[in-house]
């Protein structure tokens, strides 16, 4: 089990991680627990595997089954977190979805479903958590999960690109507004990762090879590749890092 000393320690901290049932969210929840944090996992489905992994890492785990696209979920997430632990120190805004279709054919429904979850809910959950940080005093850490498409256009994912570009902008404005409260707001932009969202790309041998050919590291990322970045941005090691979007992409953007 990895241990994070000194500035990277999250002992005594409470972290909310959305989209925690699998993939990137699960890996980041486990990484934060390995650094000492207790976890509130949020997802639409059961999180029994995440609970087991967090508890094996020495952390406590509370599951909140909720659809973040529904406004009432945010109040419940905050309330359940405070009931369980009495405080909140870190938010990882990871929950997201994607729809693929040519922009000429893209539907309003697909646009709204992606924007509501990826961007709208991320802003309002960050707002609710930041209000709690201000009430508690002592600041806090917010980490938004952006994307390579926060920087690039992509293909056949117009609402996803718009939402992740917007998330980069929200990260910057909230960092500017909330720094006076001791709150840092940063983002992680994962590269091409082995997740459910990228399965159609990985299953397409031509597209998969095109992607791999551009990644200097020569491989798809895996969820555990985000652990270190999440711990860094959640910990005191990043106290003077604010409004930044950190690419964890195997060198994709460097090409």
Keywords:
globular, 255 residues, Rossmann fold, 8 helices, 7-stranded parallel β-sheet, 15% strand, alpha/beta, 42% helix
Q: What is the overall number of helices?
A: 8
The chain-level structural class is: alpha/beta
Distance between the termini: 34 Å
- Overall number of strands: 7
Low-confidence stretches: none
CATH topology: Rossmann fold
Task: Give Rg in angstroms.
Answer: 17 Å
What would CATH call the architecture? 3-Layer(aba) Sandwich
Helix content: 40-55%
Strand order of the largest sheet: 3-2-1-4-5-6-7
CATH class: Alpha Beta
Account of the 3D structure:
This protein is an alpha/beta fold. The protein contains eight helices and seven strands; from the N terminus they run βαβαβαβαβαβαααβ. It has helices at residues 23-34, 48-56, 72-85, 108-136, 158-178, 199-202, 205-214, 227-234; strands at 14-18, 38-43, 61-65, 90-93, 140-145, 183-190, 245-248. The chain has a seven-stranded parallel β-sheet with strand order 3-2-1-4-5-6-7, with helices on both faces. Helix 2 links the parallel strand 2 (38-43) and strand 3. The chain is globular and about 50 Å long.
């Amino acid at each position: 089990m990895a241990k994070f000393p000194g500035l990277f320690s999250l002992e005594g901290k409470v972290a909310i991680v959305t989209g925690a049932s699998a993939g990137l969210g699960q890996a980041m929840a486990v990484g934060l627990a390995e650094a000492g944090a207790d976890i509130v996992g949020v997802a639409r489905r059961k999180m029994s595997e995440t609970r087991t992994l967090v508890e094996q890492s020495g952390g406590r785990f509370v599951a909140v089954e909720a659809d973040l696209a529904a406004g009432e979920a945010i109040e419940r997430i905050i309330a359940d977190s405070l009931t369980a632990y009495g405080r909140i120190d870190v938010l990882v805004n990871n929950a997201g979805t994607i729809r693929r279709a040519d922009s000429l054919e893209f539907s309003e429904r697909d646009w709204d479903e992606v924007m509501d979850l990826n961007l709208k809910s991320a802003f309002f959950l960050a707002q609710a958590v930041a209000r709690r940080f201000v009430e508690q005093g002592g600041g806090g850490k917010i980490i938004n999960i952006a994307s390579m498409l926060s920087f690039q256009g992509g293909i056949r994912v117009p609402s996803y690109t718009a939402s992740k570009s917007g998330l980069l902008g929200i990260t910057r404005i909230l960092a500017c507004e909330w720094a006076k409260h001791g709150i840092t707001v940063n983002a992680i932009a994962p590269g091409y990762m082995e997740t459910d969202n990228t399965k159609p790309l990985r299953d397409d041998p031509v597209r998969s090879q095109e992607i791999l050919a551009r990644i200097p590291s020569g491989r798809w990322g895996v969820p555990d590749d985000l652990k270190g970045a999440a711990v860094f941005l959640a910990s005191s090691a990043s106290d003077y890092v604010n409004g930044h979007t950190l690419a964890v992409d195997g060198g994709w953007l460097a090409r």
